[in-house]
Specification:
Blueprint lengths: L2 H4 L11 E5 L4 H16 L8 E6 L5 H15 L7 H7 L3 E5 L5 H18 L5 E5 L6 H10 L11 E5 L7 H14 L5 E3 L7 H11 L13 E9 L8 H26 L8 H14 L8 H4 E7 L1 E3 L2 E3 L17 E6 L11 E6 L6 E8 L27 E7 L3 E9 L7 E9 H5 L6 H11 L8 H20 L7 E3 L10 H4 L9
This protein binds 6-O-phosphono-beta-D-glucopyranose.
């Protein structure tokens, strides 16, 4: 049942099943997946006979793996420390299998273990696989699962697979991965995860736009001057230099997370809240993005790489000095794009989006900047109409949707300063999740894992959606590859990016809003 449609008050408890995590010794399992399962257990949202099997190369016993996961939950879960009463129930339902992903025998051992667990717990063979490994091994896992008879297209008992990002490296690899997955699964069994869709603030975009009547009439080129989407992080590589060298920020953040935000701002109202109706609109929007001609790429895309600098009071090294990074690397840690959308709603409204590491602070937000009033009665710093003399402080109206932190929505407009002159000051109307609801939102992974367990794919990426986004992004990579002899612009860590990026909003007489 679709929770967006039915409201969240309903009881949402999945059918009994076993979740099998490939790559279970990785950071994600300890930091996100197990803490999410722990929270679901705590809130009694897991089915009674639920079990988890971690599969990885490390030599753990079941007990050692349980201890490791408990330590992860203690450190990373929303409610720390772990409550013994919850863990004493969840802990014994966690199992571990040491396996080389290329060893067919390991998959027979997995099958035997699953059958044993299912028999002991008296559950049907519902299985949720979670691929938390590098994408290069997905095909190998799929083939071996198939040969061991662990993949079924049946509706009951069901088999589903959650696939972690990165989903491919470019358009061709994403298409190939889709083909490989769909040789063995139906699309409805495949859950391509993007954790941004699990964030409350991101889901609220749908509610904000489509549950309120007052925004739709102004949500278009007649009223909106431009849109800015910023994802700034103060962190650098945190030991992920090797991965990032291959990825770059365009793949790491834009192709997935920022394009999802972009879709939610720009898509047309869906015909219903069914998963396919929403995803149809996202795909349609992505297909409306105006392709950037290679000869104009420089006017639409700016990349950058951070130098040593100061972030939040700390001196930090430059990207090229990070472990695992080539000393002559041209991988981008900053990217800004000017996007145009060829459809009736957005014709000629630019979307400026940027993502970067080592910015002054962590913030993700979306700003909708509205057109000025059609007649400038109040001229900034000049004479206003009537006898009121000069005014100052006329500001554009901005609606800011703060994805994180300080989650909320604010409306920025000009107000008369009390007193005898007509001076104007910018003021804000604010909505804050914290104060309005006074309750802590669930972690993104809690929501997404629960949805996959329930068979609801609304907040997951469909095959054509991922391909449409790669279609656009891969062109930029191709152009960078072809022009790799050019120097990459740089910016000091702790600044808002390379000076070259100012040129993008300047095309609309605008500036980046330093979030
Ligand atoms: C991940 C990226 O997908 O998202 C990371 O690989 C990035 O590089 C992270 O730091 C950001 O997620 P969040 O939820 O902290 O904004």
């Amino acid at each position: 049942m679709n929770p967006l449609r039915e409201g969240l008050a309903e009881e949402r408890v999945p059918e009994p099943h076993v979740m099998i995590i490939f790559g279970a010794s990785g950071d994600l399992t300890k930091r996100k997946l197990l803490p999410a399962l722990y929270s679901l257990a705590r809130e009694r949202m897991l089915p009674p006979n639920f079990a988890v099997v971690g599969v990885a190369r490390n030599p753990f016993t079941h007990e050692e793996f349980r201890e490791e996961m408990k330590a992860g939950c203690d450190k990373y879960s929303r409610r720390k420390p772990v409550e013994e009463s919850v863990w004493s129930d969840l802990g014994p339902r966690i199992y571990y299998l040491e396996a080389e992903f290329n060893d067919p025998q390991a998959y027979l051992s997995l099958k035997a273990l699953l059958e044993k667990i299912e028999q002991e717990r008296g559950t049907p063979a519902n299985r949720l696989f979670y691929f938390s490994t590098p994408p290069s091994v997905f095909p190998m896992i799929l083939e071996n699962l198939g040969q061991a008879g662990l993949i079924s297209r049946a509706l009951s008992p069901w088999t589903r697979v959650i696939v972690e990002k990165p989903f491919g490296h470019d358009l061709e690899s994403a298409q190939m991965l889709n083909r490989q997955l769909k040789q063995v699964f139906r699309e409805a069994q495949i859950y391509r995860i993007d954790h941004y869709l699990g964030k409350e603030t991101v889901q609220n975009m749908l509610t904000f736009r489509f549950a309120n009547g007052m925004f739709e009439p102004i949500w278009n080129q007649y009223h909106i001057h431009h849109v800015q989407i910023t994802s700034a992080e103060s962190l650098g590589m945190e030991g992920r230099g090797g991965y990032f060298e291959e990825a770059g920020i365009l793949r790491d953040m834009v192709q997935n997370h920022l394009f999802q935000l972009l879709c939610l701002v720009g898509m047309e109202p869906p015909v219903s809240l069914d998963s396919d109706a929403i995803r149809d609109e996202k795909v349609k929007f992505l297909k409306s993005l105006r392709p950037i001609p290679p000869e104009e790429m420089e006017r639409y895309v700016v990349r950058g790489q951070y130098l040593a600098g100061h972030v939040l009071g700390e001196t930090v090294p430059g990207y090229r000095e990070e472990p695992g990074v080539d000393a002559a690397s041209t991988t981008e840690t900053y990217v800004a794009l000017r996007l145009l959308v060829d459809n009736w709603r957005w014709g000629n409204v630019p979307f400026f989006i940027r993502a970067a590491k080592r910015m002054p602070k962590k913030v993700t937000d979306i700003s909708i900047l509205f057109r000025n009033a059609p007649v400038a009665l109040f001229r900034p710093g000049g004479a206003s109409g009537g006898d009121s003399g000069g005014v100052s402080g006329v500001v554009p109206n901005v609606l800011t949707i703060r994805i994180q932190p300080d989650e909320g929505i604010s409306l920025h407009f000009g107000s008369k300063i009390p007193g005898p002159t007509m001076d104007i000051a910018p003021v804000n109307m604010e909505f804050r999740y914290g104060t309005s609801f006074g309750k802590e939102p669930p972690e993104a992974y809690e929501r997404l894992i629960l949805d996959a367990m329930l068979g609801d794919s609304t907040l997951f990426i469909r095959d054509d959606e991922t391909e449409a986004s790669w279609q656009f992004i891969s062109k930029i990579h191709q152009w960078w590859k072809a022009s790799d002899n050019r120097d990459i612009p740089v910016y000091p860590a702790g600044s808002w990016g390379p000076a070259e990026a100012e040129a993008l909003p300047a095309t609309r007489n605008a500036e980046w809003r330093d979030s």
